[in-house]
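Thread: flavin mononucleotide complex, take 2
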Amino acid sequence: MPDFDDVVNQRHSSRMFLPDKPVPIELLNEALALAMRAPSNSNIQPWHLFLATGARRERLVAALSAEVQVNRPKAIGGLPESHNRLRRELGALVYGAMGVAREDRDGRWNAQLRNWEFFRAPVAGIVCMHRDLGFADAVGVGAFLQTLLLALTERGLDSCVQVSTAMYPGIVREHLDIPDELRVLCGLCIGYADPAFPANNLRIPRNPVTENVVFLDS
Ligand SMILES: Cc1cc2nc3c(=O)[nH]c(=O)nc-3n(C[C@H](O)[C@H](O)[C@H](O)COP(=O)(O)O)c2cc1C
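Output below.
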């Protein structure tokens, strides 16, 4: 079994899964049980996760893929410049690895469309939180999610968190029976990555620690 540092370093987002390689339910249950150990404000455990496989997943993918054709997602704008730079760099790395040129709008759109197929992952997840909760509780959901991703990685499973599937909360809600009181936060793909898809082998760089962390001593 890999040690903790290896698991953290091995976890990465996969954007093409093997659709016919199912996720063993016992591995998924083990990972979920570990993720439940995540800390949260007043231990309210604010995370809710809906997991769709089989016919339910197929119907969700069909509905999202149809919707996205008639109602294209709005480009994410208004980011501070420093964040924009990182976003551009990520796009260059991911699309570059897929062999899609910057000016190839159709190629980018076709690659983007796979988001709404959950990148073909056999387990399609949606992460939710009660709509009356706030930022501090979203931190708890994030802690749950990262713990889950690491536990999946440790078990040889691959994943990708997605904001894209949450851009159509009405469809997701309808197809996964998500109650009104929950806010749809993000999607989650779980499965085995396709090793033949070059973008799956990317390791996205990070800032030096000093760019994000300040030590104060006087
Ligand atoms: C909240 C959140 C939303 C994300 N949304 C998407 C998405 O919609 N599509 C996608 O391809 N990747 C998405 N990602 C994956 C990020 O692009 C990825 O985590 C980041 O570039 C770092 O790469 P790594 O996960 O491979 O280390 C998302 C990640 C998070 C945490």
